[in-house]
Amino acid sequence: MFRDDLLAEKVVLVTGGGSGLGLSMAKRFVSLGARVAITGRSEERLRGAAGEIDPSGERVLAVPCDVRDFAQVEAMAAAVVEKWGGVDVLVNNAAGNFLAATEDLSPNAFHAVVGTVLYGTFHATLAVGRSMIERGRGGSILNIATTYAWTGSAFVIPSAAAKAGVLAMTRSLAVEWATYGIRSNAIAPGPFPTEGAWKALMPTPELEAEARARIPMKRFGEHEELTNLAAFLVSDASPYINGECVTIDGGEWLASGGEFNGFTRMPREAVKGALRGMRKGKE
Ligand code: COA
């Protein structure tokens, strides 16, 4: 579907690029010709990831930082700009999340998640956005949101609140920074298996099976499906897409809302038989 040089000449910075979906995206971007900088808290993890992304080391740069701390983010962004002259694409992927009953959360637990997701996204956007504006060559920002940014979700309220903020930021900047040729878009993924997300969000095999059954397509997402979407949105193949949030969840969030969606879990012939019976009853 994509040309191998789709992202040639692009410098892409991926926060949380040392593992999970961030690492998958970084690999995909390099396979499409980009140079990629990854950042995250663990220097060791970043080093391992960099080796996987590009064993030659020519097209990958690993700079550790904690996105919760603006000074660290500014220094990290400056290191990327110094090495490669600027950043064309910022992917705000770094996140933190865990399942917890809200009444059991401490203020610091809320702070830890919101600090990473909302403040982290803002910090990277501010530092990299300023450098994009100064350079005058436009750019593209892609934020990783979630489907429950719209609906909210029980047991993950720090994440839901933070991701709703990220979505608002995406749409606000799509308008404000269009002046500088900077596009802002988002992706709202449903469940994509990663070690981190599964450890934090899938308590038992039974709940995993239930989560899978809830998805109309009856499966979880594959990393390649998300990385293809990300590559398209950050590339010059989508120059007029600005302020959009693309959902990629096999229809999961819609299925949890519709009043009669539960019927799809019954055998279809049984449903149709019951509907025919109701119609006959009216005649
Ligand atoms: N339930 C309730 N509270 C929890 C918790 C849980 N499962 N895990 C952590 N907390 C609380 C801690 O108790 C602490 O609050 P306290 O100081 O009042 O006790 C606070 O959250 C911060 O915890 P700490 O252990 O210092 O973690 P941290 O600063 O590393 O931040 C995360 C926590 C979740 C943000 C961090 O682990 C992270 O960034 N993880 C990234 C990986 C990830 O979450 N991946 C899944 C993405 S979908």
Report on the structure:
By secondary structure, the protein is of the alpha/beta class. It contains 11 helices and 7 strands. It is globular. A 7-stranded parallel beta sheet has the order 3-2-1-4-5-6-7, with helices on both faces. The chain has one domain: Rossmann fold (3-Layer(aba) Sandwich), CATH 3.40.50.720. The mean pLDDT is 95. Strand 4, helix 4 and strand 5 (139-144) form a beta-alpha-beta unit. Bound molecules: coenzyme A. Coenzyme A is lined by residues 95-98, 100, 105-106, 108-109, 112-113, 116, 196-197, 200.
Q: What would a concise description of this structure say?
A:
The protein is an alpha/beta fold. It is built from 11 helices and 7 strands. The protein has a single domain, classed as Rossmann fold (3-Layer(aba) Sandwich).
Task: Give the structural class.
Answer: alpha/beta
In percent, how helical is the residue content? Answer: 40-55%
CATH fold category name: Rossmann fold
Largest sheet: 7 strands, parallel
Uncertain residue segments: none
The chain-level mean pLDDT equals 95
Proportion in β-strands: 5-15%
Number of domains: 1
Rg value: 21 Å
Q: Looking across the biggest beta sheet, what order are the strands in? A: 3-2-1-4-5-6-7
Family: Belongs to the short-chain dehydrogenases/reductases (SDR) family.
EC number: 1.3.1.34
InterPro entries: NAD(P)-bd_dom_sf (IPR036291), SDR_fam (IPR002347)
Enzyme class: oxidoreductase
